[in-house]
Records
---
Amino acid sequence: MKAMVLNEICDLKENRTPLQLTTLPIPTPKKKEILVKISACGVCHTELDEIEGRTPPSRFPMVLGHQVVGTVEETGPNSNRYKAGDRVGIAWIYSACGICTFCRQGNENLCEAFKATGRDANGGYAEYMTVPEDFAYNIPDVFSDSQAAPLLCAGAIGYRSLRLANISNGQNLGLTGFGASAHLVLKMVNYQHLDVKVFVFARSEKERDFAKELGAVWAGNTEDKAPEMLDAIIDTTPAWKPVVAALNNLRPGGRLVINAIRKEDRDKDYLLKLNYHEHLWMEKEIKSVANVARKDVSEFIKLAAKIPIIPEIEEYPLESANEALLELKERKIRGAKVLTLS
Ligand SMILES: [Zn+2]
Ligand SMILES: [Zn+2]
């Protein structure tokens, strides 16, 4: 099968083709696994973190990609949840131990044995992949394969972060950074919490305009002071300045939820501006969002079909994965980027 593989960590400024087109054997599904013939795989910022070593693959070569849609080609021994021809999705969570306290509580995203698709097991930048059947999801009919793919990451993690933000009716929610995940959160809030006002902080004017178009009551720059104090803020940026700025906008008892797999070191000095009294005093809280649990993916996909959330997409053939990744890095974004396989 054709696959785009990562052979080593590299700097995208120097290496414009981090992934190599390779031929790999089609994997065989093991016990309780399914073999999926891939039709679409979303391109995510996390792939940039993997390539540049901020969350490196656990082995090389690795097939990246964790927003996968395809059809079941074959089922392994004792695998009976799906049959050949079923359409399924695969997300960032590839597997977990199933027996630890976290797994038993449905927080398998925190499991010590957590494995990520496309980082610890081969993912979707290929024609086929295998996955444990319990870590695949049904995809509602309203979505095409390419439309469903980006929902499996940004949407599911956005859903989890909104859950952790613990916002209730009448409260004010802030979103700092307004990319794929944040704009989906805004759509979920519009649908679920009619009385929640959303305030958006974004560097680019285009993103701020987009936020207002989608119903944000206010949109300003990262460091701006919102016109009202906020009860919770979700941060989806890779930087530190938005963290400090967000804490300054929180009400007493407010919560900052950081939804970023890694923070970059570039502006880490900004943390020195952190002033205990202004930013943390009065029981302000900081919480991160780690990975996703299966519940987040399956609940979000159903919610997205109901709202409905149909993502804007930009398709690329598998062979153009490097081009799609570089455009993502350089913020040339017209919609969620999806690799398609014929
Ligand atoms: Zn992702
Ligand atoms: Zn576990």
---
Amino acid sequence: MADQLIRATAAEGGIRAVGVIATRLTEEARQRHQLSYVATAALGRTMSAGLLLASNMKRAESRVNIRIKGNGPLDGILVDAGLDGTVRGYVDNPSVELPPNSRGKLDVGGAVGNDGYLYVVRDVGYGYPYTSTVELVSGEIGDDISHYLVTSEQTPSALVLGVFVGSEGVQAAGGILIQVLPKAATDETLVQTLESRVTALSGFTPLLQAGKTLPEIFEQLLGDMGLEILPETQLVRFHCGCTFDRMLGALKMLGEAELQDMIEKDDGAEATCHFCGTVYQASSAQLNQLIVDLQSEASAK
Ligand SMILES: [Zn+2]
């Protein structure tokens, strides 16, 4: 099934649900960054969460950045997701591998660590991003994002994220976010019912692997609550907006002395985009041009 995002409502608009299938884009991230099993799970969960969080924003250019910084060996995760369905991301130590946890699952919590912070930056498209920070709960990412939604956004939320990685790569990835909106948030039983239903799912990837579609999963969770599935299926994908020109712009900011040093020592520069792993090469001639540009900008001041 193609990577996709589907939205729904229930309880006469009191409940908002969104589901994402991120299998292919997680596999693309795995290949681009040569991620270990546990790093694939960690990044896939965070990218799925990013797409889910971005899905309720308003302006087309809106984006969400999720930064997770824990005390585990993975060190950190950064994901950038947009309402447009694009997502990119990386982990600081992609080769970390850990034995399975006590439940026989990939030990994402152990890799991320349960001591640290989750930062969520919402850029609504007006140039004034909102940043929220919460402490990590377990490092399992789903718990941590739920904690953020409840404490920072004050929205009762049930979230399930999952990534299943086999020897052939990513077999299933994605998640579901169900939120109780302010008009219904005082309905304690509604909130509890949703939480217990999502908990009873026993994970997201088993449903995908059993061949369930997102509408069928919504039906299972919200079918008796006036479920309305929005007709649009949005395609989602791994995409990085980096270009050779942007890389040159970043090199230019290093300044004249540093550029001169690169020309003399390395006869050019090589830069790798953290987000997508693309390697860019700049020749000495191109670095020299940057120096000329810097000098003419300085003399124009
Ligand atoms: Zn890139």
---
Amino acid sequence: MDFFDVISTRRSVRVYDSRPVEEEKLQSILKAANDAPSAGNLQSYEIYLVRSKTVQRALATAALGQLFIASAPLALVFCAHPDRAAHQYGERGRRLYAVQDATIACAYAMLAATALGLATVWIGAFNDEEVQRAILKPEGQIPVAILLIGYAAENPAPTRRRSLEDLVHPVE
Ligand SMILES: Cc1cc2nc3c(=O)[nH]c(=O)nc-3n(C[C@H](O)[C@H](O)[C@H](O)COP(=O)(O)O)c2cc1C
């Protein structure tokens, strides 16, 4: 798929069919995330791969009862790893770069999944501690996004965007 078609056809999908994600596609998605840029190339984030329905149900509870989370064949939990960035960049790395690293890696994964004919939704509304508990993650990592991936069982309409005139502010 053309890169700009990938961007313009992507939709947040919240109903998935039970068809599993092929292993080669999953590996391509993970490689795309790993190819994302990061501050100082430190990759100050971790990815947790969740296929267990039990863990997905715990994530759904952690995400304020968004039960559709358990209907996707898999979820990737992107966590900032602030200590990795702080080592080189101090407070700015801890506070900002680790979150940016996790965010851009998740965006790459999302677009890669779209390019492979898969559907996704980015989940950001959750209780951090409950997500940490659900994935049994070591201390010191902050969940940034849960990305659901699977085959769509709905076809959502495009959502509205601000006009570029409203969004973009030329600075002379
Ligand atoms: C930071 C962030 C947090 C989001 N959190 C949620 C969420 O918790 N639950 C959900 O269903 N969608 C969530 N979304 C998806 C947005 O609702 C969706 O991207 C937006 O409505 C635009 O629709 P579209 O993705 O289909 O273009 C989130 C998206 C982003 C980028």
---
Amino acid sequence: MKENKKIIYLDYSATTPLDKDVFNEMQPYFYEFYGNPSSVSGFSLEAKMAIDKARGKVAKAINCKREEVFFTSGGTESDNWALIGTAISRKQKGNHIITSSIEHPAVLNTCKYLEKLGFKITYVPVDKYGIVNLEYIKKSITEKTILVSIMFANNEIGSIQPIEDIGKICRDKNITFHTDAVQAIGHIPVDVEALKIDMLSMSAHKFYGPKGIGALYIKKSVKIDSYLHGGEQERGRRSGTENTAGIVGLGTAIEKSNLDMYNENVRLINLRDKFIQEVLKIENTSLNGDISNRLPGNVNICFNGIDAETLLMALDLQGICASVGSACSAGSLEPSRVLVALGLSEEKAKSSMRFSFGKGTTDEDIDYTIRILKDIIGNIRNN
Ligand SMILES: Cc1ncc(COP(=O)(O)O)c(C=O)c1O
């Protein structure tokens, strides 16, 4: 690609750029207040206080208590902790876990690992819009069910699950309910109390915070073992020297995203719907997932008969950065598991592409991308 060519970044679901204010807040904790927050010296107090402050911001953003927030290295660790920690701590009660067929690999591969250890996993199917079947969840519950883990919003098609209904089903049966909210936090309102969520995973790099930092919310009454063992950090439940700057970044990013959320979502939904409307004018295209029940910045389109990898490269040459499947499955020759779970044929799944919009996406970016898409697809189909 030519130098200085403007990049149109339409891959915000994969990761977001660090917000400048977040960066400014983080900086002092690299070189000025670098003390170990767990040390007793007065010098470390600044770092310790900054972590406490960030914990308060996370708690406020999702409506939980500060002591229910545990910092981790990101979404993957939070998901692993939620699933493995619950499985180990509750194995006397039972060995059955319920999840969905469209979870992120951080949940699905952890379930595969637990299967090897003797746990039984039920994978709940989804409808053609990517929404889990509540009746299936209800009828899958047995006396041995110890955990239900259903993602808040899907990373490929943006479908938003009926979290409150699932929370209610689990609360009534005294089953722990975990949700992977990595794609939801910072983008749509989340209230763990109102939605009856017992555990929730989040990751800062999805909402303009730094990479390599996340959190797991664990409701006080929930029984869960530690996942990382070592020192007494995070009240003895998640060992390892705290990533002070990262934690400060997460706190600032979640606070800022929540403040901007309403206006930004109105803007994004306008861009998204305009994009969908225009792209669907191209012959033989269809929208994957639901038109309305989806994340404000997510679009996933099937360009029938077109190899999405080829299209991705052609767009890349024009400076447009989108994605096929999710970043975590990029490079795999398999069709997207999520799209196949919606009922798409392998061929259609391999002709589908995700565009995800965020703070830097402008009206002009959308117009340009629509124009380029029309040109490229016209060329491919005419040759
Ligand atoms: C739904 C979902 N869960 C978990 C993860 C993993 O998060 P992290 O990159 O912080 O490990 C991702 C990242 O793409 C995701 O989209």
